[in-house]
């Protein structure tokens, strides 16, 4: 969960906006997110995200890929930006992952468009890397996660 602020004018404009909601809907999910947070407890949520973020980074490394973030103190425990090999367009990974495995990933924007993918979880990532021509050893990411957890 992140902190989001909007003035009344922005909230009103969001009601009639026709654009696709990519990350969240202003009205529907805040209460549900807070209910889940209070049920699990903030300390437990932070610990879980820390553990799974580290597991995701280990799996990325085990697949032979690089984390875009260069210093450990800059790592996020909720999203991992992965450098995509130069012969692969990250848009192909995202499109294939959605169509074939029903998994939604994010893309790098602006200067890193086509060069990054954003992982919130690792389900299906090894298979889609194989599908777009990256020579990943299937099971390497999962093995790294299992060894860590």
From TrEMBL:
One of its GO terms (cellular component) is peroxisome. Its cofactor is pyridoxal 5'-phosphate. Keywords: Aminotransferase, Pyridoxal phosphate, Transferase. Signal peptide: none annotated. Coiled coil: none annotated. One of its GO terms (molecular function) is L-serine-pyruvate transaminase activity. InterPro entries: PyrdxlP-dep_Trfase (IPR015424), PyrdxlP-dep_Trfase_major (IPR015421), PyrdxlP-dep_Trfase_small (IPR015422). SUPFAM superfamilies: PLP-dependent transferases (SSF53383). One of its GO terms (biological process) is glycine biosynthetic process, by transamination of glyoxylate. Belongs to the class-V pyridoxal-phosphate-dependent aminotransferase family. This is Serine--glyoxylate aminotransferase. It comes from Canna indica (Indian-shot). The lineage of its organism: Eukaryota, Viridiplantae, Streptophyta, Embryophyta, Tracheophyta.
């Amino acid at each position: 969960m992140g902190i989001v602020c909007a003035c009344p004018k922005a909230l009103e404009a969001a009601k009639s906006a026709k654009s696709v909601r990519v990350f969240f809907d202003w009205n529907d999910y805040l209460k549900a997110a807070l209910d889940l947070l209070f049920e699990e407890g903030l300390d437990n949520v932070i610990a879980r995200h820390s553990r799974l973020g580290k597991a995701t980074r280990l799996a990325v490394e085990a697949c032979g890929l690089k984390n875009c973030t260069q210093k450990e103190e800059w790592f996020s425990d909720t999203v991992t930006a992965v450098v995509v090999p130069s012969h692969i367009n990250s848009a192909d990974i995202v499109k294939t992952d959605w169509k074939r495995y029903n998994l939604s990933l994010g893309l790098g924007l602006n200067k890193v468009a086509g060069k990054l993918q954003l992982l919130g979880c690792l389900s299906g990532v090894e298979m889609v890397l194989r599908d777009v021509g990256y020579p990943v050893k299937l099971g390497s990411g999962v093995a790294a996660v299992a060894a860590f957890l």
